[in-house]
Design brief:
Elements lengths: L9 E8 L6 E6 L4 H15 L5 E13 L5 E8 L2 H14 L5 E9 L1 H8 L5 H9 L11
Parallel strand pairs: 1-5
Antiparallel strand pairs: 1-2, 3-4, 3-5
């Protein structure tokens, strides 16, 4: 018989990258900082999308709310610092006995990657041909 251990200091979470579906499930530590959370989400994204050079710049918590008709709604709460992350766990613990933490993330490419994709790299021969170019005589007379 094989046993698996469950760390009681973690919660099950679902992350949606740039609003995409389906979500990716992972376990998140209760004492994680915002920086650590972004790093972990970056790592998961790289595992899912090997060619992506995007990184996480924004994290929002989908806070579940019930209206007066007992309809489930979600309020998006931006996570901008470590206190916001601690608040997310506190709100989740107060209102959920089951379920998972749902996160929306915003991914962007780094400035270096964007610039790299815009520049066409010329080899030496191409640059030399552009600099030397064909010599043309310029006439100021009317043709």
């Amino acid at each position: 018989m094989e046993f698996t251990c469950l760390d009681l200091n973690t919660k099950l979470a679902a992350v949606y990258y740039n609003g995409g579906t389906p979500p990716h499930l992972f376990r998140i530590r209760n004492d994680v900082t915002l920086s650590e959370l972004k790093d972990e989400l970056d790592q998961i994204n790289r595992q899912l999308n090997h060619r992506h050079t995007r990184r996480v710049v924004g994290v929002e918590y989908r806070c579940p709310l019930f209206d007066s008709a007992e309809t489930l709604c979600f309020s998006r709460m931006k996570r901008t610092n470590d206190d916001d992350v601690r608040t997310m766990f506190s709100v989740f613990d107060q209102h959920n006995t089951r379920g998972l933490i749902e996160l929306d993330t915003s991914l962007v490419r780094s400035t270096e990657q964007i610039l790299k994709s815009l520049h066409r790299h010329n080899n030496y021969e191409e640059i030399r041909a552009l600099l030397e170019g064909p010599e043309e005589e310029v006439s100021l007379d009317d043709p």
